[in-house]
C-alpha cells in the first residue's frame, strides 16, 4: 500500500539529506514502530510514508513514491493518511472538543447524527465524554494531545502516523490508545506508524520496527526484543543502569528552611470548579520533587502559580525571604513552542539575563557555555523555531538555567527527548539540586522520575494524594 524506493530528502538551504535512500514497502494492517536518536530523521521518514512530504516539509524529495498503487511524487490522495505531530496545539482549530472530532467528518459530507455517534463512541472509550463541549483552551496539554489523536481516529484514514503520541498522556490514556490502535489495525486493516521512544510500549504493539540513524534506515524487521536490541535502541529497562551511573544526590539538609512553601492553595479557572483545593507542600534546597498525577490533575497549574502566573484564593505561595517569583523562580513551559519567541537561539537563551541587566559580553559567554552543555553550541545564530522538538526543549532548559534561579519548575521536561538526552537531563537536574536549588518537575515518565527526583508527590482531587521518597533511590 505504501512504497518508497530510493527516497531521499534534502531540506531547503541544506546540502546533506535528512533522509537517505530509503526503500520500504508497507502493507495493509501493519503496525510499524519508528525509532532512532533525536534528529535521526524519524519525522521526515514519517511524512514521506504518509504522502504528506509536499505539505509538511520544505526541500527536495528524490526517488519513487507510491500510495495505494498510484504515483505519489506530489503526495498521497486527500484522506489517505491521518497525522498527529509532536505539538498537539498546532493542529487544533475548533472551539470545542466535539467540533474538533466532527471537523473532518463534516468536511466529507457526513451528517450531524453520524458525527455525534462517532464522537460519543470515541470520547466514551477514553473516559472523556464529559469534556465533549469543553473549549479547547480550557484543556490541559495531555487532554489536548488526546483530542488531537481522537480527531484523527474519527477521520478513519487508511494510514495513521502518530509522532510521539503518548508524550503528554498519562499511563491509563496511553494504554487505552495502544490497545485501540492494535484493534484498528487487526479489524480494519489500518496501517499504523508510530514514532515512539518508549520501547517497552512499542514492543507490546508494533509487529515491525524501523530504526534510523543519520537519515538512513539501519534496521527494518520484526519487533522482537532481540531485534530491537540489535537495532541499537536502548531498552526500557536500561534506565535502571543509567540510574546507577548518575552523579549522586547529597542528602537534603532537613533543617534548611524551604525555598518554596505552598499553604492551603486553592485555585480554579472558574470560581465554582477548583483545580487545586487546599494543597500544602514545602520544597527544601537540594530536593527534587517529581509531580505525578493524571492528565488534568493540576500539575502545570501548580507550577504556574509558583512562578506567579495566577493568584491562589485562598492560600499562599511563600518563597524564602529575599526571593521573588520574577527573579528567583525559573519556569520551563510544558510546550516549548509556548516559551520560545526570540529570533535567534542566543537571544532566546540570553533573554532573562538581559532583563536583569547583565552586560552583553558576559551574557554571550554564559549563553555559550549553557548551550554547549546541551549540545546546542553550534546553533547560536539559528532561528529557534527551525530547531527539532527535542532541540527546542533543550534550548528552553538552557534559557532557564543560565539565569541560575533558586527554584526550578520544569513542566514535562523530557517530552521529545531520546533515552540518552533524558539521562543527560536527569544528570543536570541532579547537579542543580546538589548546588542548593529546589526543583519541582511535572512528568509522566516513570524512568525520568526515577532518575531525577528525590521525592515523588502525586496530585489528585486538587491535593497531595501521596508524598514519598523516590522508591528507586537506595535508602
Ligand atoms: N486556561 C484554562 N481555562 C480553564 N480550565 C483550564 C485551563 N487550563 C487548564 N484548565 C483545566 O485545569 C485542570 C488542570 O490542568 P493542568 O494543565 O494543570 O493539568 P496537568 O496535571 O498539568 O495535566 P497534563 O498531565 O495533561 O499536563 C484541567 O482539568 C484543565 O482542563
Ligand atoms: Mg501539564
TrEMBL record:
Similarity-based family = Belongs to the ABC transporter superfamily.
CDD domains in the cross-refs: ABC_cobalt_CbiO_domain1
Keywords assigned? ATP-binding, Nucleotide-binding, Transport
What is the native source organism of this protein? Solidesulfovibrio magneticus str. Maddingley MBC34
Q: Does the keyword Coiled coil apply?
A: no
Does this UniProt record's set of keywords contain ATP-binding? yes
Q: Matching SMART domains, A to Z?
A: AAA (SM00382)
- What is the name of this protein? ATPase component of ABC-type transport system (Duplicated ATPase domain)
Per UniProt, residues of the ABC transporter domain are 2-239, 260-473
Q: Which GO terms describe its cellular component?
A: ATP-binding cassette (ABC) transporter complex
InterPro entries in the cross-refs: AAA+_ATPase, ABC_transporter-like_ATP-bd, ABC_transporter-like_CS, ABC_transpr_CbiO/EcfA_su, ECF_ABC_transporter_ATP-bd, P-loop_NTPase
One Pfam family this sequence matches: ABC_tran
| GO molecular function annotations of the record | ATP binding; ATP hydrolysis activity; ATPase-coupled transmembrane transporter activity
Amino acid at each position: 500500500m505504501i512504497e518508497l524506493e530510493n527516497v531521499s530528502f534534502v531540506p531547503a538551504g541544506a546540502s546533506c539529506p535528512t533522509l537517505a535512500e530509503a526503500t520500504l514497502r508497507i502493507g495493509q494492517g501493519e503496525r510499524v514502530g519508528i525509532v532512532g536518536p533525536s534528529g535521526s530523521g524519524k519525522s521526515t521518514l514519517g511524512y514521506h510514508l504518509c504522502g504528506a512530504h509536499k505539505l509538511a516539509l520544505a526541500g527536495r524529495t528524490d526517488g519513487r513514491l507510491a500510495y495505494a498503487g498510484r504515483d505519489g511524487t506530489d503526495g498521497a490522495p486527500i484522506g489517505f493518511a491521518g497525522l498527529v505531530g509532536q505539538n498537539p496545539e498546532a493542529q487544533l482549530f475548533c472551539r470545542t472538543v466535539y467540533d474538533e472530532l466532527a471537523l473532518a467528518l463534516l468536511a466529507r459530507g457526513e451528517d450531524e447524527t453520524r458525527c455525534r455517534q462517532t464522537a460519543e463512541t470515541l470520547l466514551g472509550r477514553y473516559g472523556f465524554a464529559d469534556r465533549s463541549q469543553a473549549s479547547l483552551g480550557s484543556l490541559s496539554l495531555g487532554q489536548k494531545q488526546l483530542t488531537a489523536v481522537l480527531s484523527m481516529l474519527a477521520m478513519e484514514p487508511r494510514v495513521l502516523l502518530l509522532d510521539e503520541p503518548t508524550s503528554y498522556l498519562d499511563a491509563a490514556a496511553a494504554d487505552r490508545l495502544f490497545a485501540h490502535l492494535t484493534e484498528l489495525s487487526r479489524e480494519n486493516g489500518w496501517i499504523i506508524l508510530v514514532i515512539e521512544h518508549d520501547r517497552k510500549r512499542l514492543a507490546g504493539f508494533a509487529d515491525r520496527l524501523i530504526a534510523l540513524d543519520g537519515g538512513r534506515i539501519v534496521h527494518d524487521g520484526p519487533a522482537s526484543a532481540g531485534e530491537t536490541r540489535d537495532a541499537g535502541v536502548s531498552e526500557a529497562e536500561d534506565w535502571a543502569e543509567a540510574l546507577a551511573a548518575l552523579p549522586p544526590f547529597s542528602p537534603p539538609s532537613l533543617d534548611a528552611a524551604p525555598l518554596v512553601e505552598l499553604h492551603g492553595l486553592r485555585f480554579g479557572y472558574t470560581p465554582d470548579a477548583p483545580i487545586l483545593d487546599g494543597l500544602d507542600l514545602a520544597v527544601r534546597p537540594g530536593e527534587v520533587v517529581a509531580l505525578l498525577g493524571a492528565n488534568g490533575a493540576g500539575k502545570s497549574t501548580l507550577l504556574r502559580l509558583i512562578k506567579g502566573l495566577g493568584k491562589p484564593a485562598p492560600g499562599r505561595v511563600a518563597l524564602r525571604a529575599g526571593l521573588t517569583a520574577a527573579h528567583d523562580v525559573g519556569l520551563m513551559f510544558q510546550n516549548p513552542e509556548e516559551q520560545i519567541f526570540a529570533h535567534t537561539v542566543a537571544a532566546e537563551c540570553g533573554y532573562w539575563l538581559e532583563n536583569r541587566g547583565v552586560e552583553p559580553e558576559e551574557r554571550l559567554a554564559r549563553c555559550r557555555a549553557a548551550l554547549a552543555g546541551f549540545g546546542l553550541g553550534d546553533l547560536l545564530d539559528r532561528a529557534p523555531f527551525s530547531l527539532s522538538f527535542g532541540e527546542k526543549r533543550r534550548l528552553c532548559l538552557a534559557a532557564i538555567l543560565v539565569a541560575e534561579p533558586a527554584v526550578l519548575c520544569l513542566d514535562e521536561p523530557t517530552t521529545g527527548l531520546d533515552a540518552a538526552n533524558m539521562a543527560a537531563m536527569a544528570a543536570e537536574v541532579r547537579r542543580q539540586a546538589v548546588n542548593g536549588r529546589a526543583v519541582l518537575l511535572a512528568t509522566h515518565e516513570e524512568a525520568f522520575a526515577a532518575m531525577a527526583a528525590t521525592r515523588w508527590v502525586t496530585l489528585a482531587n486538587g491535593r497531595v494524594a501521596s508524598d514519598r521518597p523516590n522508591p528507586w533511590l537506595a535508602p
